[in-house]
Amino acid sequence: MSAQAPSSVILVRATKFVPNPATAADNAFQHVIPEGQPTEETSRQALAEMDALAGALRDVGVRVHVFDDDDHTRPDSVFPNNWLSTHQGGYVAVYPMYASNRRHERRGDVLEMLKSTYRVQTIIDYSGLEPDGIFLEGTGAMVLDHISRVAYTAVSSRADTNVLERFCTDFRYEPMAFEALDSGGVPVYHTNVIACIGTDVALVALGMIPDEQRRQEVRERLSVNGRRVVEITEEQVRQFAGNAVELCGRRPDGTKRYVMAMSGSARRSLRPDQVAEIERSCEIVSVDVPTIELAGGSVRCMIAGVHLDPRPAEGGEPTATAVAIDEHPHTADGQDVAEGTG
C-alpha cells in the first residue's frame, strides 16, 4: 500500500479537554464553550467524541494506540500530531510548540511505545528551539506528501521557515512554503486545516493562497504524479473539510483499503461531486466531533499517524497492523489490550 496512508495511529484520550485560551489569539477556528455549559460537561462530551473516533477507526481495520491523559494543564493534548511525526525508515521527529502550555504534551511513554512496537532508528528533537522563539508544530504546520517528499507549509507564527528547512534537510523533503489567508486577511494558523494529501486525491483550499503563481505551483506539484486535486472553499474549510487524513485499513476478509477520516461537519460540507472524487480511491469515515472542534482542530489534528515498520512478534511474524475492537481499549501507556502489545 501507499507510503502516504499509515495503518496505525496514536490518539490521546484527554479527560480534561477544554478549548485552550493560550492558543485563541492566532487560531481563528477556535470558539468558546457555549455559555452556561460547565467545563466538566465539555470534557465529558469531548471524551465521548474521542472514543467514537477510536471505535470508528478500529471498525475499518486501523490499528489504534490510545494514551490516557488526566492532566488538566494540557487542554490540547488531544492533538498529538503537533508534537510528533513518524517516517519510513525508522525516523521520528519531535517539534517545538508555540504555546508554552502545550510543550509538556510531549510524552516519553509515547516514544517508548514506538520504540518497543515499531522499528525506530533515530529520534530528532527540535524542541530545543523553543527558547529562541522558533516553532514548527508538526503535521499541523506541515502537510507532508510522503510519496513525492514535499512539505507543504503555510507560514505562520507556528511554522517558521528556518526550522522547516532544517526538517526538510534532515528528513529529505522539499519545502514548499506559502502564505495562506482567510477572507479577512488573517493568516491560517495550521496548514492541515486547508489541505489534506492522500495517495490519489488531495483536498486543498487553493483560493486561500493569495499569490496566484504560488497557488498554481502548489496545484501542479500536488498533481505531478497523477493525483487528483479537489478544490475546497473557505466556507468548507470552516467546517474542517481540509482537516482530513488518509489511512490504510482492512476489510473483514483481511484485504487492505484506503479510508479518508474526517469529521461529520467536514463530510456534510462536501458537495456530491467532491465526495465522488474522494470515493474513487477512499472510503470516507466520518465522526461527529463538535466539542473537539471548539478548540480549532478536528479529526486530522487528533491523529498522529505511525509510518514505521512493526517489530516482529514472537515467532518471527510481523506484528499485526489491525486489531479487533476491544471492550476496554484504553490504557495509560498506549497498550493495545486486544493484542497485549504496546
Automatic annotation (TrEMBL):
Keywords: Hydrolase. InterPro entries: Amdntrnsf_FN0238 (IPR014541). One of its GO terms (molecular function) is hydrolase activity. Residues 312-342 are annotated as: Disordered. It holds the Pfam family DDAH_eukar. This is Citrulline utilization hydrolase CtlX. The gene is ctlX.
